[in-house]
Amino acid sequence: MRKITLRNGTELPVLGMGTWNVGDCTERRAEEIASLRAGIEAGLRVIDTAEMYGGGRSETLVGEAIDGVREEVFLVTKVLPSNASFEGVRRACRNSLQRLGTDWLDLYLLHWRGGVPLAETVRGMESLRADGVIRDWGVSNFDVDDMEELEELGGFCAANQILYNLEYRGVEFDLLDRDRVAGVVNMAYSPLGQGGELLHHPVLDGIAARHETSAGAATAAQIALAWVLRRGDVLAIPKAGTMSHLRENLLATELELTESDLAALDGAFPPPRRKTRLAMI
Ligand code: NAP
C-alpha cells in the first residue's frame, strides 16, 4: 500500500479507519471490533476517533479493539472546541486516554474551530507534546485562512482532517496544495460520502464494471475510495462497521483509475473553478 509521510518522518499507509457511530449499537459492537482488528492485521495503522463520537463510546470501543496491539496502531482522536482552552485540552486528553486504555496519542486534533483563541489551544497541544502524552497535534475542518492564522502562531501542526470526496471537491482549489506545501498531511473524512447516494451513482457503477480487484469485480465504493487516494498526498479514513466493508475498502488500494475514468468522474462531479468555503459535516 502507498505511504504518506508526516513532517516528523513517520510513514503511514494512505488508507486508515474511521469510527464515527461505532459503539452506538450493542448488536453491532462485536463486528465493529472485529473489523477494526482485521484492519490492523492487514496493516491499516491509522484509527481515527473523537471524544464527541457517542459521547466517548467510540473511544471506548477503539480502546477494546487496540488492546494488546497498541504499538501497531497510529491512534488519532479529537478534542471538542468547547474543551479547547489550555486546561480544557489537557483534561480532555486525559479523559480520552482513559477511555482508549492507552497512555499516549499519536495525533491529537482540534475537531473544529470554536470560540477559544487558537493560541491558547496551540499552547495546550504543545504542552501535551512536551509531556510526551501526544506525539503530534493537528486540526480538523480548517480552511486556508485558518491554516494561515495557525501558521503565524508557530507550533507544529501535523495534519488537517477535512471533508473530501467526489461530492465535495472544493479543497482541490487551494487547501490540498497549500497544506501539502506546508508539510501538513490532509486526512480525508467521509471519503465514501457516508455510504449515501454517491455509492449508487451510475457513473461510479459504470467505472466499477470496467475494473477488477483480486477478489473479483470492483464496486462503486471502491471507485469512490480509489478516487480519493489517486493523488497520493491524502490519507483516507473510511468507516467500515462490517468485515465485508472492511475487506472491500482494503481492496480499493489495488485499483488504478485511468485517464478516461477520471474524465468521466470530472464530468459527473466537476472540479472547483473558484474558491468555496470549506464544507464540513
Ligand atoms: P464514510 O467513511 O464516507 O462512510 C461510512 C459509511 O459507509 C457507513 O455507513 C459504512 O457502513 C458505509 N461503508 C463503508 N464501507 C463501505 C463499502 N465498501 N460499501 C458500501 N458502504 C460502505 O463516512 P464517515 O464515517 O462520516 O467518515 C469516515 C470517518 O471520518 C468517520 O468515521 C470519522 O472517523 C471521520 N470523520 C471526521 C469528521 C471531522 O469533522 N473531523 C467528520 C466526519 C467523519 P458500515 O458501518 O455498515 O460498514
Q: Would you mind describing this structure in some detail?
A:
This protein is α/β, with parallel strands linked by helices. Helices cover 37% and strands 16% of the residues. The protein has 10 helices and 12 strands. It has helices at residues 29-41, 57-65, 86-100, 118-131, 144-152, 175-182, 202-209, 220-229, 243-251, 259-268; strands at 3-5, 11-13, 17-18, 46-48, 74-79, 107-110, 137-140, 157-163, 185-189, 212-213, 216-217, 234-236. The strands form 3 sheets. It has an 8-stranded parallel sheet. Strands 1-2 form a two-stranded antiparallel sheet. It is globular, with a radius of gyration of 18 Å. The mean pLDDT is 97.
By secondary-structure content and strand pairing, the structural class works out as: alpha/beta
How does the major sheet shape up? Answer: 8 strands, parallel
Which overall shape is indicated by the principal axes computed on the Cα atoms?
globular
Total helical segments: 10
Low-pLDDT windows of residues:
none
Q: In which range does the helix fraction lie?
A: 25-40%
Q: Can you write the helix and strand succession as a string?
A: EEEHEHEHEHEHEHEHEEHEHH
Heterogens: NADP nicotinamide-adenine-dinucleotide phosphate
